[in-house]
Amino acid sequence: MKKIVATMFGVGLILMLTACGGSKVDDATAEKYISKAEEIITLLNETNYEEVHAMFNDEMKSGLPTEDMEELTPIIEEAGEFKEIDKASVEEDDGLFISVLVAKYSKENRVYTITFNEKEEVAGLFIK
CA separation (Å) from 56 to 66, 83, 84, 106, 107? Predict the structure, then answer.
């Protein structure tokens, strides 16, 4: 558990620092990465961690192994039943596309920050 929290915190910290200097993207690019992020959120809600893991870049694959991803289940389940994506935005910074989506659940919201690299692989994942 400590390893997954440390990995997610480190990735999240990088993403938050990166997000501060990002620039807005055009509508087509935003739609593309929001759609990809929504797909990942759906897979996470379904606990389909193997499919999410297959979308990771090499750094994420080694930093967050599939078996450790199961520790995300209580974080997501605490929020209740998934309802909808409430807000979404995408910024680009140094070749990374940072997608921030607010997901509404029956009990509370979760904010997903999912970063994609230029190969459209997941280069960062943070759930708050």
Answer: 10, 25, 24, 28, 29
Backbone angles phi, psi at 95, to 5 degrees: 85, 0
Which residue type is seen at 87?
Answer: K
Considering Cα of 94, then 34, then 99, then 59, what sign does the dihedral take? negative
**How many separate domains does the chain show?**
1
Contact 86, 73 (CB under 8 A): no
Mean pLDDT of the chain: 89
User: What is the CA angle 68-72-76, rounded to 5?
Assistant: 170
pTM, entire model: 0.82
User: What DSSP state is assigned to residue 118?
Assistant: T
Cα 26 to chain centroid distance, Å, stands at 20
**What's the start-to-end Cα distance of the chain, in Å?**
16
**Which range is least confidently modeled, 14-18, 65-69, 107-111?**
14-18
Residue 60 belongs to domain with CATH number: 3.10.450.590
Q: Tell me the residue range of the domain where 50 lies.
A: 2-127
Q: How far apart are CA 55 and CA 104, in angstroms?
A: 24
